[in-house]
Amino acid sequence: MSRLGKLDPARLAPEQRKIYDDIVSGPRGSIGGPFAPWLRSPILADRAQKLGEFCRFNTSLPKRLSELAILVTARYWKAQFEWYAHEKMAREGGLAQLIIDAIRLRLPPPGMQADEKVVYDFASEAFALHYVSDDTYARAMEILGEKAVVELVGVLGYYCLVSLTLNIFQVGLPEGEKPMLK
Q1: I need a labelling partner for 113 at 20 to 30 A (CA). Which of 4, 16, 80, 94 fits?
Q2: CB of 44 within 8 A of CB of 75?
Q3: Confidence of residue 106 (pLDDT cuts 50, 70, 90)
Q4: Would you say residue 16 has pLDDT above 90?
Q5: Contact 143/149 with Cβ under 8 angstroms?
Q6: Is the confidence at residue 149, as pLDDT, over 90?
Q7: Which three-class secondary structure string do you get for the chain?
Q8: Other CB atoms within 10 Å distance of the CB of residue 13
Q9: Quick check: 147 pLDDT over 90?
């Protein structure tokens, strides 16, 4: 159960209603996950949802790689809702189930392609060390390119914000869903 009460769309302040309408009319189509907590601060909600729309739908990273980065982030923060929301998207984006399962279990993922390996290593090092080694950085620049590396950092940072929001406000899973992260 969320620490925050459910928002009634009919009772939103005008500035909240504008952001609410922007979110539900965009590619997301609904208010879920971190958006209900963020709507308590309309400016934060507006800016965060715009950054999120870019990070989720418009980076130069293939969906398989951005979803890989999101799953590593969700796993790091043990963000149950984030994992629930993105595991299926990762699979649909072309990430192998063996890789998804290994991340969930905190095991080294088998059979990764070179670009998957560098994204996994980059994200894992960023969370474990709070920076990435020169070797990992150089491999990421070589394999992904400068723009994609910058966007990868943006994806990791945005989904840290999402994960913290979900965890702190205890945004629950949909009815009948079980936590996947131990």
Answers
A1: 80
A2: no
A3: very high
A4: yes
A5: no
A6: yes
A7: CCCCCCCCHHHCCHHHHHHHHHHHHCCCCCCCCCHHHHCCCHHHHHHHHHHHHHHHHCCCCCHHHHHHHHHHHHHHHCCHHHHHHHHHHHHHCCCCHHHHHHHHCCCCCCCCCHHHHHHHHHHHHHHHHCCCCHHHHHHHHHHHCHHHHHHHHHHHHHHHHHHHHHHHCCCCCCCCCCCCCC
A8: 10
A9: yes
- Mean pLDDT along residues 118-132: 98
| Residue 25 tokens, joined | 């009319």
pLDDT band, very low/low/confident/very high, at 35 (cuts 50, 70, 90): very high
Is the domain spanning 63-158 CATH 1.20.1290.10? The answer is yes
State the amino acid at position 44 in one-letter form: L
142 sits in which H/E element: helix 134-144
State how far the alpha carbon of 123 is from the alpha carbons of 37, 65, 66, 157, 181, in Å. 26, 11, 11, 10, 18
Question: Distances from the Cα of 13 to the Cαs of 2, 10, 17, 49, in angstroms?
Answer: 21, 9, 6, 18
